[in-house]
Design a protein that fits this description.
The protein has 483 residues and is α/β, with parallel strands linked by helices. The protein has a single domain, classed as Metal-dependent hydrolases (TIM Barrel, Alpha-Beta Barrel). Helix content is 32%, strand content 21%. It contains 15 helices and 20 strands. The strands form 4 sheets. The protein has a 7-stranded mixed sheet. Strand 2 and strand 3 form a beta hairpin. Helix 3 packs parallel to helix 4, helix 4 crosses helix 7 and helix 7 runs parallel beside helix 8. The longest helix has 18 residues. The chain is globular and about 70 Å long. The chain binds dihydropyrimidine-2,4(1H,3H)-dione (DUC) and zinc ion (ZN) (3 copies). The site of one zinc ion has 4 residues, from loops. GO terms for molecular function: dihydropyrimidinase activity.
Length: 483
């Protein structure tokens, strides 16, 4: 059984052209004029693009005394409804838990997946066992390791642990990811705010000023340089962090920055809303910033200093958010966005001319597929690639509302936003999963996408510059475990 996507305009990260796409056995088998297939998928007036890849989700994740409300079932259905055909979720070992045990847990959770998925492995503690297990994790097809510089006393790793783990990533050809916020300072500032009687959600914004993100981003970049490893910085929300990435790139460091669609569009005024529920529902870390920071992020997307737009989809219900009614530090951190990322970025990025259609594809799919080393299986409209495709109708519009969403939560942080540009068809490995917003997907259809180690290692510039000095440390010369 073959299908041909007919009459559309193909948009990739670098080309825009009219052609049909033939799909057979889950793969793209031909691209060209006047192709024939058993079934015709009409793309007249539409753009044919690679399905979205959201590299930053937290599905069915225990966090802050509760668990995220979307699991791999509702989460991947929400993804497909909006045109995202692959998610990369974070396997999160509890401190002291074996990485491989955590992976087993995430393998079980992902049995519900309706679209393809992969994992990053979080490093939330450090010893010889973690060092050893990191190799086994890469052999399981995971080439990215996440580090939290915040969440002190829970997930946070210290600089020595981060340096050891980054050095191990360098040896394994894996990419470290960081949540860059200074967890020590956040804990101090939060305690001071609570002591002064600032307990509401606005305290969350006060407790995490842009400086704590900028400081941590600079620190992570310099540690990555000393370890001689590339670095991926998740949820870049402010100019201080963005500026650190710009400078690192100019120095010749391979560093990528990922803003979220929420930070591009929502600002800090949300935390000062008179309705406490409204504000608490928008509590995530880092918090939303002011308009100047937003403009900086948009500029980074068009100039290429920021590489990927994700969501950090981490959805909690209003009831869960109310756990922090008396104390903002107890509001589970996280917002949704998986379902609306593409239509929002199209409507508020492509339509007003902030980014081009080709940049849209790069930012939502192709760039991250390359970074994570699953390109061109994913993120491409090429013969041989997986037929994860969207037929995108630029005329189709709707108003975002929780009432009609797939995500399991009872609100949407973009409630009332108008979008124009939505998928007409969403295909996962050649099968139509959604048509005009109506899902026809299947639990268990989603497959794990294995990703080999990435060849894109960095030389440590800090060492390289000093190579002639007697104090120079050759790359790899510092024992990775520190013992
Ligand atoms: N930030 C969030 O808002 N939620 C999950 C974890 C994170 O870093
Ligand atoms: Zn984070
Ligand atoms: Zn409200
Ligand atoms: Zn996250």
């Amino acid at each position: 059984m073959s299908a041909v996507i007919k009459g559309g305009t193909i948009v990739t990260a670098d080309l825009t052209y009219g052609a049909d796409v033939l799909v057979e056995g889950g793969k793209i088998t031909a691209i060209g004029p006047d192709l024939q297939g058993d079934k015709v998928i009409d793309a007249t007036g539409c753009f044919v693009m690679p399905g979205g890849i959201d590299p930053h989700t937290h599905l069915d994740m225990p966090f802050m005394g509760t668990s995220t409300a979307d699991d791999f079932g509702s989460g991947t259905r929400a993804a497909l409804a909006g045109g995202t055909t692959m998610v990369v979720d974070f396997a999160l070992p509890a401190p002291g838990q074996s990485l491989l045990d955590a992976l087993k847990l995430w393998d079980n959770k992902s049995a519900l997946a309706h679209c393809d998925y992969s994992f990053h492995m979080a490093v939330t503690w450090w010893d010889e066992q973690v060092f050893d297990e990191m190799r086994a994790v890469t052999e399981r097809g995971i080439n990215s390791f996440k580090h939290f510089m915040a969440y002190k006393g829970a997930l946070m790793v210290n600089d020595d642990e981060m340096f050891a783990s980054f050095s191990r990533c360098a040896e394994l050809g894996a990419i470290p990811f960081v949540h860059a916020e200074n967890g020590d300072l956040i804990a101090e500032i939060s305690a001071k705010l609570l002591a002064r009687g600032i307990t509401g959600p606005e305290g969350h914004a006060y407790s995490r000023p842009t400086a704590v993100e900028g400081e941590a981003t600079n620190r992570a970049i310099m540690i990555a340089d000393m370890a001689g490893v590339p670095l991926y910085i998740v949820h870049v929300s402010c100019e201080e962090a963005h500026e650190a990435i710009r400078r690192a790139k100019m120095r010749g460091q391979r560093v990528w920055g990922e803003p979220l669609v929420q930070h591009l569009l929502l600002d800090e005024s949300e935390y000062f809303h008179p309705d406490q529920d409204h504000a608490a529902r928008r509590v995530m870390s880092p918090p939303f910033r002011n308009k100047q920071h937003q403009e900086g992020l948009w500029a980074g997307l068009s100039s290429g200093t920021l590489s990927v737009v994700a969501t950090d989809h981490c959805a909690f219900t209003t009831a869960q958010k109310r756990m922090g009614l008396q104390d903002f530090t107890k509001i589970p951190n996280g917002t949704g966005g998986l379902e609306d990322r593409l239509s929002l970025l199209w409507s508020y990025g492509v339509t007003p001319g902030r980014i081009t259609m080709n940049e849209f594809v790069a930012l939502t799919s192709t760039n991250i597929a390359k970074i994570l080393n699953c390109y061109p299986q994913k993120g491409a409209v090429l013969v041989g690639a997986d037929a994860d495709l969207i037929v995108w109708d630029p005329q189709k519009s709707r108003t975002i509302t929780a009432e009609k969403q797939v995500s399991a939560i009872d609100y949407n942080v973009f409630e009332g936003w108008e979008v124009k540009g939505l998928p007409r068809y969403v295909l996962s490995r050649g099968t139509i999963m959604a048509e005009d917003g109506v899902l026809n997907s299947r639990e268990g259809h989603g497959e794990f996408v294995a990703r080999a180690p990435n060849g894109a290692v960095n030389r440590a510039l800090s060492t390289w510059k000093d190579l002639t000095s007697p104090r120079a440390v050759p790359r790899g010369g510092i024992p990775a475990t520190g013992v």
